[in-house]
Amino acid sequence: MLRFGAHCDLAERTYVYRFLGRSRAEVEFRDGRPFYVLDLSSGDWNATHLCDPDRYDGTFCARDGNAWEMRWTIAGPRKDLTVVSRFRRRVASVRFPLQPRAVPRAPLPSR
Fold it and tell me: For 44-50, which contacts have Cβ atoms below 8 Å and span 24 or more sequence positions?
């Protein structure tokens, strides 16, 4: 769900996750360019991606074994925004559980 001011609609973005273990992955853009390394083994993670001339600072947090949040703060001459994405497993079975970390959670819109 994309919220931008008063606008709210479905949106999508594709990333490729190359898993390096139970809680680690190399993340690439759809075209194969590297984006960042993700490690949720401790429950949270920080990463930086330089997209000259802008800088992306990411914070990641495992909410429980089936959900995690990604927050990018983007700053530079071309961009100045924060993007928050929430991920949930589609299936109930947990193949590779994430380490949970308690954080406040904003409600998601109902469909």
Answer: 44/101
Say how far apart CA 14 and CA 110 lie, in whole Å. 23
Residue owning tokens 């100045």: 80
DSSP-derived secondary structure for 42-74: TSEEEEEEEETTEEEEEEEEEEETTEEEEEEEE
Number of residues in the chain? 111
Spell out where 5-43 has E strands.
Answer: 7-9, 15-19, 24-29, 34-39
CA-to-CA separations, 52 to 34, 40, 74, 89, in angstroms, rounded: 14, 27, 11, 33
pLDDT band of residue 1 (cuts 50, 70, 90) is: confident
Which residue's entry shows tokens 């949270």?
A: 44
- What's the pTM value of the predicted model, to 2 decimals? 0.69
Contact status, residue 26 vs residue 32, Cβ threshold 8 Å: no
Which backbone phi and psi does 86 adopt, to 5 degrees?
A: -120, 130
